[in-house]
Design brief:
Alpha-Beta Plaits; 4 strands; four-stranded antiparallel beta sheet
Length: about 260
């Protein structure tokens, strides 16, 4: 029996080995841990867990909240205490000022008592002046009025008679029978005046009538009877007396003492 030997197949050339890729840092650490774990089976694994009961956690939170509330109350009490102290201080200052003012008033009153007679005299003087002012409110200064009548007369006019009447307390006018004409002065009428005079001519008499209308306290002069005797004109002038002619010696003064 014969065997045939087959020729051996030629071996394939070996493929060149590829260079190993460098390991990444994370993978290197992982491999190191695995290797160390494999080398140390008693190693404690890094496991963390909060094993406190929920009641303890809540209690800690409550204590923290109470601590904050107490701190806020303390701050509030400090602020209120400072405000109260400031209020007490200001009250004390004002009370001291009031005491000093009252002491000053007491001293002034004591000094015033030393001049009580003078103060009483001034009060009585004011009372008397007020009474005289009411009593002589319609006081007529005849002397002043007659002097004004004479001063208003132009040259050549001579006054022979002057008669006057004042209104009554009820406001009655002068003698009956006189014509009552409206006043043009706008002032309160208190009486009437009749002036008898003589003048060399009608022109001078008319000038005197016009001058009487400018005398303070007189208004609405009116020429009455006029007769000529021996080249002399004798005439009468009727004129109203206004409130401006009142004396007012004791009337209340204005504008200071």
């Amino acid at each position: 029996m014969t065997t045939r030997s087959h020729p051996a197949e030629p071996e394939k050339p070996a493929e060149p080995e590829k260079p190993a890729e460098p390991e990444r840092p994370a993978e290197a650490e992982k491999h190191a841990e695995v290797a160390s774990g494999a080398d140390n089976p008693l190693r404690i694994l890094p496991i963390a867990a909060n094993l406190l009961p929920a009641e303890i956690v809540e209690a800690r939170r409550d204590r923290e909240a109470r601590r904050l509330v107490v701190s806020a109350l303390v701050v509030l009490l400090v602020v209120i205490g400072g405000w109260y102290g400031e209020a007490r201080y200001q009250t004390s200052v004002q009370e001291n000022r009031l005491d000093r003012a009252q002491a000053t008033v007491g001293q002034l009153l004591h000094q015033q008592n030393a001049f009580a007679d003078v103060v009483n005299a001034q009060t009585e003087s004011r009372t008397i002046t007020s009474a005289l002012s009411a009593l002589f409110a319609n006081d007529m200064q005849w002397s002043t009025l007659l002097a004004a009548l004479q001063a208003a007369a132009p040259a050549g006019v001579q006054l022979s008679n002057i008669s006057g009447t004042l209104a009554s307390a009820t406001g009655g006018a002068a003698a009956a029978g006189d014509a009552k004409l409206p006043s043009t002065s706008g002032q309160r009428l208190i009486g009437k005046l009749a002036v008898a005079a003589s003048a060399p001519s009608e022109t001078v008499a008319a000038a005197y009538v016009d001058a009487l209308g400018k005398v303070p306290g007189l208004a609405d002069p009116m020429l009455g009877d006029a007769t000529r005797q021996d080249k002399v004109l004798r005439f009468t002038v009727r004129v109203d007396i206004t409130a401006a002619a009142l004396g007012g010696r004791y009337a209340a003064k204005t504008g200071g003492r």
